[in-house]
Amino acid sequence: MAVLLEIKNLHARVVADGKEILRGIDLTINEGEVHAVMGPNGAGKSTLSAILTGNPAYEVTEGQILYKGKDLLAMKPEQRAWEGLFLSFQYPVEIPGVSMVNFMRAAVNAQREYQGKPALTATEFLKLMREKRAVVQLDNKLANRSVNEGFSGGEKKRNEIFQMAMLEPTLSILDETDSGLDVDALRIVSDGVNRLKSAERSSIVITHYQKLLEYVQPQFVHIVYKGRIVKHGGPELGDKIFAEGFDWIKQELEG
Q1: 3-14 sheet: strands from edge to edge
Q2: Angle between helices 122-133 and 100-114 (to 10 degrees)
Q3: C-alpha gyration radius of the chain
Q4: Are 221 and 34 in contact (CB under 8 A)?
Q5: Secondary structure in 3-state letters for the chain
Q6: What tens digit of pLDDT does each residue of 122-175 get?
Q7: How far apart are CA 143 and CA 141, in angstroms?
Q8: What parts of the chain have a pLDDT lower than 50?
């Protein structure tokens, strides 16, 4: 099993005010693995996802990130996406005036160009879109509208998983994708995530809720506290958090 992502002693701060958020993150993810990242608000979970995808609001001050053996921090955000990183946002943005069809065709063909593959023809692309739309039960009417414009919260999250299906990333980062979803939407989104699992693809699931972990079933759970991963474990660690909260972590670490 090959190493897909390796994070070593990662430190990062907010560019605007210099506040340090990450204080020495270490994490290794192999191909085919699903990892859950949990922790109290402000611990650094979403900052980690932002650093991985190249958000310019954050600056890495120390450490290294290797993705498929390559220096991830040396890549521009679009290169990271073309290399196979995908981020499902907690709050997906609307892009008025840009149709989903044109948006996804541009994204897919840009990725194919980077990989040295020919662009998909219109017929090939529409066939692919129909196949992937079925993964998350995305209505055809939504697929033909502007990106996320007028979508409900659940439709936006479903649309994100559809985009993930289209791009077939090797590492998907789901940053609180379950936030604001009702039970039916959560099940559909989770089913889409599960159907995209493979021996080559991995996922990082950032969540506060037990239900998503029940559906997605990560093999590994990590707790982030004050900018560091302080606990590693299996699904039982997630069960302990849902049963007892995070106070026991504070007591264990700080007395």
Answers
A1: 20-30, 3-14, 58-67, 70-71
A2: 110
A3: 18
A4: no
A5: CCEEEEEEEEEEEECCCCCEEEEEEEEEEECCCEEEEECCCCCCHHHHHHHHHCCCCEEEEEEEEEECCEEHHHCCHHHHHHHCEEEECCCCCCEEEEEHHHHHHHHHHHHHHHCCCCCCCHHHHHHHHHHHHHHHCCCHHHHCCEECCCCCHHHHHHHHHHHHHHHCCCEEEEECCCCCCCHHHHHHHHHHHHHCCCCCCEEEEECCCHHHHHHHCCCEEEEEECCEEEEEECHHHHHHHHHHCCHHHHHHHHC
A6: 999 999 998 988 877 777 776 677 787 777 777 787 888 888 999 999 999 988
A7: 5
A8: none
Two tokens, residue 148? 């996320």
| Cβ atoms 238, 210 nearer than 8 A | yes
Q: At 255, list the tokens.
A: 């007395």
